[in-house]
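Async update (no meeting this week)

Hi team, since we skipped the sync, here's where things stand on the single-chain job. The sequence we agreed to prioritize is pasted below, unchanged from the tracker. I ran it this morning and attached the output directly underneath so nobody has to dig for it. Comments welcome in thread, and please keep replies under the output.
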Amino acid sequence: MIRWVFKKFIELSPEELYAILQLRNEVFVVEQNCVFQDADDKDQSSVHLMGWREKKLVAYTRIVPPGQSYKEPSIGRVVTAQQERGKGTGHELMKFSISKIHELYSQADIKIGAQLYLKKFYESLGFLQSSEVYPEDGIDHIEMTRITHKDA
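Output:
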């Protein structure tokens, strides 16, 4: 069972921050063979969602406030440990992230920058492609938006 924890940057313990950076580097840098500047000054203003299985961080996102990456709030650095893939952990992670955005920012629309190969995954969560394909750090990406329909 995964234990989900939300924290502001200032509330993260050194051990939690290390685990976050370790997982992000493990997947984004080593597994995807992508050299990029992970420390982008957005972590400090973001809320961090961590999924722990026992004492191991296995899933993570950061909720980026409006005006940082896009005018809408955003979900970034979406990552699941290799051993968690195919178990539904990524869907659960995104559902919690979407829920957290709605808790923090009412029923705001959500915009993400997604790796192109994950388009169908994000579409299954209600996101629609909202840009042309663009390269980022050597990987094809697209912007995707999840429109929150408000009752009139």
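Quick observations from my side:
Residues 3-146 form a domain with the Aminopeptidase fold (CATH 3.40.630.30).
The chain has a mean pLDDT of 92.
Reply here if anything looks off.
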